Amino acid sequence: MQIGYKLFAEGYGPGELVRQAAAAEAAGFDFVEVSDHYHPWLSDHGHSAFVWTVLGAIAARTERIGLATGVTCPTRRYHPAIVAQAAATTGLLSGGRFTLGAGSGERLNEHVVGGGWPAPAVRQEMLQEALEIIRLLWRGGYRSYCGRHLSIADARVFDLPDPPPPIAVAAGGPSAARMAAELGDALFTTEPRRELLEAYREAGGSGPAYTEVPLAWARDEDSALESARRMFRFGVTGWKVMAELPNPANFDAATEAVGKEDMAAAFGYGPGPERHLEAARRFADAGFDRLALVNAGPDPDGFFDFFREELNEPLRTLEPAPMG
C-alpha cells in the first residue's frame, strides 16, 4: 500500500503547492498528485496554476516523493504530442519519479480552446488515440500517426527518460478500465468501485490502482464539514455533472443546495482518526493500493501532523482486497 497526498491546485497558489509537496515528503507520504486544470471548480477557489511549471518546481524541491498528474486530458487543451514532451521532461527532472495520469477530461477545462465538447464516446476514442501517440513518441525517432481525431507528422521528442513515465489511465466505466489495461501501466479512479478494478484486471492490467480518498481534518467536526462544503461541494455532484459544466459560475449554481450533511456522507471528517480510516478502508476493500488522501480541511499543516501521528501507520496496515 502506498499513500499519497492530493495537492488542491484550485485552492492554493503555485508557490504554496510546492511548499505543501515538500511538507508532504517530510511527513512521510509516498507521492503527491495534482490536477491539471485551466479553471478552478468554484469561483471562490481562486487558483488554477499551470501544472507543468508546478511539477518542475516540486521536482527541484524534493528528493524522494513521487509526482503524478491527477489527471491530464491529452486531447483538447493540449495535443498529445505536447503532453508526451511535457511528461518526458518532468520524468527527467524528477529522476524517474513522475507518473502521467491521463483521462478524457472535463468541459470546465477543455472548452477554453474552442471547438466544442465531444460526446463521451468520442472523448474515449480521442483518449485512445492520444495514448497511442504518446506511446509512439516515447519510442524515440521521428513519428507520424493519422487517426480519426488526432494526428502527428514527423514529430520527435528528443529528451526521453529511460524508462518512460508510467501512465495511469482514468476510468469511470468498464470500457475505460479495459483501455487502461491495454494502453496504460496503472488504473486511476475516484470511487471505490470494485467492478472497475475487476474489469482492469480481467483485461490483463497488472499495474497499481490509484484512487482518491476524500477527507476533511479540523480540530472539530463542524469546522471540518464547513471547510469540506466550501472547498469540495462540487465533488458530490457526480462525474456526469462534473464533466459537462463549462465554468465555475455553473458549479456555484449547481452546488448551492449542497449541505454539510452531504459532505458528512461522502467524507471522512473531524479531529480523530476513526472516520478517516473508515473512509480509506472502503477503497482498500475495493482492491486499490495507491490511496491519495484529499484534505478538504482548512489547515494543511495540521493535516500533515495528523497524518504523521495518527494515520500513517494504520493506513500502512490496510491490505487491498484480492480480486476473485
Written description of the protein model:
- With 324 residues, the chain is an alpha/beta fold.
- The protein has 13 helices and eleven strands.
- The longest helix is centred in the middle third of the chain and has 18 residues, at 120-137.
- The chain is globular, with a radius of gyration of 19 Å.
* CATH homologous superfamily annotation: Luciferase-like domain
- Side by side, the strands of the main sheet go 1-2-3-4-7-8-9-11
Predict the CATH topology: TIM Barrel
Count of helical regions: 13
From the spread of the alpha carbons, the general shape counts as globular
The arrangement of helices and strands along the chain is EHEHEHEHHEEEHEHEHHHHEHEH
